[in-house]
């Protein structure tokens, strides 16, 4: 049965795919396209897994007038609809109401469920993980597109330590690099930062450049949380570059995932490949690199 699949054979690749269409984009991924990056990556990975669970801890629209920036909407409406279970959490009333409307707009699909949570994701995470709905062999993804200090380190630890058969819950963690120094100085309630960082020794961050901060986060994701691959992907201020506003930290255990994220980052803002085209390329890659046995 499809719902019992984990990850099929896939080539281990320690270098980018030899894709003749790969070219350095004339424009980087910028803030208005970060949701498209997530949607494109899941299109690739779920196309391989044939299933998946999706957790979004801060799922309400950040720009209500721009649905193309709403990750939950793009992922829910992406084709083919192979994600099976959605867990969408939003604290703000207006954002939660938008999620309710979005859920009502979705077609009824057998085996597909959408769970909504109105409140603090840090308080709901254990309920979600202990619900029994996320099984050990489910490919599971969690988007943490927080507003600066919203996602507590204890929440990330809960996700990373959730018992899975082979692979940890894959994380997409947004670090607000572009304004972090200002936020650290302006946040009056320092216990909020303590919870975000996981301890009170965050004060040294104020003296570090953004690149060192994201390196520290990546190191913690590897050493403290035990992820095999951790990569920070820069999200720029605008379409012609400018400063880095976010780093999207991608944490995964699966050998194929970093290469697929590389592909998604390069292609997020261009037309999506058809499933037939993507399958043809997968077959070519397997022929060149060999099978990967999980």
Beta-strand portion reads 15-25%
Q: Which bin fits the share of residues in helices?
A: 25-40%
Q: How would you characterize the largest beta sheet?
A: 7 strands, mixed
CATH superfamily (homologous) name: Vaccinia Virus protein VP39
Structural class assignment: alpha/beta
Whole-angstrom Rg? 19 Å
Shape: globular
Number of DSSP-assigned strands: 7
Number of helices: 10
pLDDT averaged over residues: 85
SSE order, as H and E?
Answer: HEHEHEHEHEHHHEEHH
CATH topology: Rossmann fold
So, CATH architecture? Answer: 3-Layer(aba) Sandwich
* CATH class descriptor: Alpha Beta
Number of domains: 1
Question: Can you walk me through this structure?
Answer:
- The protein is of the alpha/beta class.
- The chain has one domain (2-178, 213-282): 3-Layer(aba) Sandwich (Rossmann fold).
- Helices cover 37% and strands 17% of the residues.
- It contains ten helices and seven strands.
- Strands 3-2-1-4-5-7-6 form a seven-stranded mixed sheet, sandwiched between helices.
- Helix 2 (71-77) links the parallel strand 1 and strand 2.
């Amino acid at each position: 049965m499809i719902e019992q699949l984990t990850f099929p054979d896939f080539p281990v690749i320690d270098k980018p795919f030899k894709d003749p269409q790969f070219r350095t984009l004339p424009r980087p991924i910028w803030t208005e396209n970060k949701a498209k990056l997530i949607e494109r990556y899941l299109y690739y990975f779920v196309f391989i897994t044939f299933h998946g669970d999706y957790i979004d801890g801060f799922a309400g629209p950040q720009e209500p007038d721009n649905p193309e920036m709403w990750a939950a909407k793009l992922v829910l409406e992406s084709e083919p609809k192979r994600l099976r279970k959605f867990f969408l959490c939003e604290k703000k009333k207006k954002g939660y109401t938008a999620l309710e409307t979005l859920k009502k707009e979705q077609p009824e699909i057998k085996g597909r469920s959408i769970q909504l949570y109105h409140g603090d994701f840090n308080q709901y995470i254990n309920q979600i993980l202990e619900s029994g709905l996320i099984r050990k062999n489910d490919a599971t993804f969690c988007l943490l597109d927080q507003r600066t200090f919203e996602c507590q380190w204890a929440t990330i630890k809960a996700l990373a330590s959730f018992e899975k058969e082979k692979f940890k819950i894959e994380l997409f963690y947004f670090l607000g690099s572009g304004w972090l120094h200002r936020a650290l100085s302006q946040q009056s309630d320092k216990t909020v930062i303590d919870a975000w960082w996981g301890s009170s020794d965050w004060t040294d961050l104020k003296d570090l450049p953004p690149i060192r901060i994201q390196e520290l986060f990546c190191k913690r994701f590897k050493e403290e949380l035990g992820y095999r691959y951790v990569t920070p992907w820069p999200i720029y201020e605008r379409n012609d570059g400018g400063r880095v506003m976010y780093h999207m930290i991608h944490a995964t255990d699966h050998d194929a995932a970093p290469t697929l994220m590389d592909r998604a980052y390069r292609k997020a803002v261009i037309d999506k490949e058809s499933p037939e085209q993507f399958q043809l390329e997968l077959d070519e890659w397997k022929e060149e690199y060999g099978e990967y046995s999980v």
